[in-house]
């Protein structure tokens, strides 16, 4: 959902025929979980997924019709069909999908989300769904964060705000929460979906060589905000590393000293040699970082460990928190395989935290 929300405004400006589908509820075994979203246009799927296969095929047909009808709906699917039925899903569960055929009313909300996350302010997207005529629903969205509270009825906010505070404090972007709130105008209850959004975790890559470039690409695919640091402008540039959000051309040690603290910062050190590795690593010791990883042979890592501890740069406990050699042991050989092993370890650490 995150990437889709951030790009809807840009896509809408060039293509007004967009439909957003979001999984709102599941039961039993399903191909996707609540919060998963897909963006459809007149030519089919553009980004994301609501599960693939038969379910997504059905949603795509609905989206194709909704592109022209501009009618939104909340649809429910039973996936517990017999294996002999080749036209239906056989996962065994149930899934509900909200199809929003008129995103124009939410453009300002998606812009607010983009602005808040750029300022590294977390918040929660509030999606209110009211039943209209027949199968049609009316959808309204609101954004709430520490610097902004939407104009909603006080009785609704009284129910929403405690849940919002919990979602923010839990720091789990995979959450998707459903509550019912009152509609005083019609004296009925309506569905309200809450989905938290957090600034992306930061991946700091020290080294703009082959592995740094490959890892920057994978980090971007994995929704990290990627920064690459190197003192060689011929390597640290947008042509060489197009997937980096930020590129810093500076002495590596000095630049690493400026990265700050934070449990959402992941550091991977893949410089061209022992000297630069040590310069990049020293400023990271003792900081409250989510992850510190450094490439190198076992002999090199062992020698650096002895040097750091003997010189008082790190304690035994601090060194033990460093992932060195970096990456999961998948017998990687090529640059790309090494980058995959590092990316896999980043995912493991990030998901274990959640």
Question: What are its keywords?
Answer:
354 residues, alpha/beta, Rossmann fold, nine-stranded antiparallel beta sheet, five-stranded parallel beta sheet, 28% strand
Put the structure in a nutshell.
With 354 residues, the chain is α/β, with parallel strands linked by helices.
Describe this structure in words.
This protein has 354 residues and is α/β, with parallel strands linked by helices. The chain has two domains: 2-197, no CATH class; 202-353, 3-Layer(aba) Sandwich (Rossmann fold). The chain has ten helices and 14 strands. The two termini are 18 Å apart. Mean pLDDT is 87; it is low at 81-90.
- What is the number of strand segments? 14
> Could you spell the SSE succession in H and E letters?
HEEEHEEHEEHEEEHEEHEHEHHH
User: What integer is the average pLDDT?
Assistant: 87
Q: What's the arrangement of strands in the largest beta sheet?
A: 3-2-1-5-4-7-6-9-8
How helix-rich are the residues, as a percent range?
A: 25-40%
Question: Biggest β-sheet, characterized?
Answer: 9 strands, antiparallel
Please compute the radius of gyration using only Cα atoms. Answer: 24 Å
**If helices are DSSP runs of H or I spanning 4 or more residues, what is the number of helices?**
10
Shape: elongated
* Uncertain runs: 81-90
What is the count of distinct domains? 2
* Proportion of residues in β-strands: 25-35%
Distance between the termini: 18 Å
**Class by helix and strand content?**
alpha/beta
């Amino acid at each position: 959902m995150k990437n889709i929300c951030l790009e809807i405004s840009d896509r809408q400006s060039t293509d007004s025929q967009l439909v957003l589908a979001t999984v709102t509820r599941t039961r039993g075994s399903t191909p996707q979980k609540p919060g998963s979203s897909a963006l459809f246009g007149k030519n089919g799927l553009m980004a994301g997924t609501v599960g693939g296969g038969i379910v997504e095929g059905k949603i795509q047909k609905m989206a194709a019709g909704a592109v022209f009808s501009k009618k939104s709906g909340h649809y429910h699917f039973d996936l517990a069909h017999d294996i002999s039925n080749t036209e239906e899903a056989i996962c065994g569960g149930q899934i509900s999908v909200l199809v929003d055929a008129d995103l124009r009313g939410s453009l300002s909300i998606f812009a607010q989300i983009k602005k808040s996350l750029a300022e590294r302010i977390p918040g929660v997207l509030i999606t209110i769904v009211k039943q209209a005529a027949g199968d049609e629903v009316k959808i309204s969205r609101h954004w709430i964060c520490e610097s902004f509270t939407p104009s909603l009825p006080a009785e609704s906010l009284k129910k929403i705000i405690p849940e919002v505070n919990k979602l923010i404090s839990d720091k789990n972007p995979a959450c998707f929460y459903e509550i019912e709130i009152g509609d005083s105008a019609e004296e009925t209850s309506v569905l309200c979906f809450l989905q938290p959004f957090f600034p992306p975790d930061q991946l700091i890559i020290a080294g703009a060589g082959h592995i740094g470039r490959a890892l920057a690409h994978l980090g971007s695919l994995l929704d990290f905000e990627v920064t690459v640091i190197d003192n060689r402008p011929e390597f640290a540039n947008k042509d060489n590393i197009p997937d980096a959000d930020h590129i810093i051309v500076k002495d590596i040690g000095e630049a690493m000293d400026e990265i700050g603290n934070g449990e959402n910062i992941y550091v991977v050190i893949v410089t061209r040699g022992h000297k630069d590795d040590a310069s990049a690593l020293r400023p990271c010791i003792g900081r409250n970082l989510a992850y510190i990883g450094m490439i190198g042979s076992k002999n090199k890592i062992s020698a650096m460990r002895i040097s750091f501890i003997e010189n008082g740069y790190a304690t035994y406990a601090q060194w033990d928190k460093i992932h060195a050699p970096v990456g999961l042991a998948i017998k990687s050989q090529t640059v790309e395989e090494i980058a995959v092993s590092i990316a896999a370890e980043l995912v493991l650490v990030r998901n274990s935290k959640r």
